[in-house]
Amino acid sequence: MNNFICLFLSIVFFLAQPGNCRNRNIDENKKISLNCQELPLRSVLEDIRIKTGVNFIFQDNLIDNVIVSCQIENSQVKDAVKKILAGSDISFKEFGEKSFVLFKEKKIIKKTSYKAIIVNENSSNIDTVSFVKPQMISKISPIYPEEAAKNNIEGKVKVRFLVDKEGGVYKILIQQSSGSEILDSAALNYINKLKFIPAKINGNPRSIWMSIVLKYLVVY
Hints:
The chain contains five helices and 14 strands. It is α+β, with helices and mostly antiparallel strands. It is rod-shaped.
């Protein structure tokens, strides 16, 4: 807040100086050419001020140690300033009729999360009222592979597998690939660790095929 007040007072003081209110219209037809290689931004801005009469208002430490390179031919002042500041975290706005206020641009960082979830689970259809499908008892969740997360790889994997009479998982098959070996492998590893209360038909444990779809999502 103190920095903002200081900047505001500097602007007011600057505009109150004699001569600052005369000839304030920026000539839109005014062209400028610059060829600067590894020069301090401060000196480049001063060069523009001398050539065009445009004033730059900024906190002194904003441009300390900022070095710029540019090749500008017959550009309007506003476009030239935009090119000079490109690639830095400094932006600008027009103030009054012949001044630019420079400020540090706030960058919005998107938070990214990665989710690996079961979106569909079913067992084979059996035409009997006494059928009890397998019940998952594993306390584990699908894990988004680190390599896939680094590269923003996402996809859907459909896996089919056999749950035996003891609740173990066997004969794991990929019915639908995600298109990524990393995600397919992660899905197989997850299924291989699952444990179930086995299916029952008429009260007797039975082996049964199941299908699970795992979806790996990049969430912004």
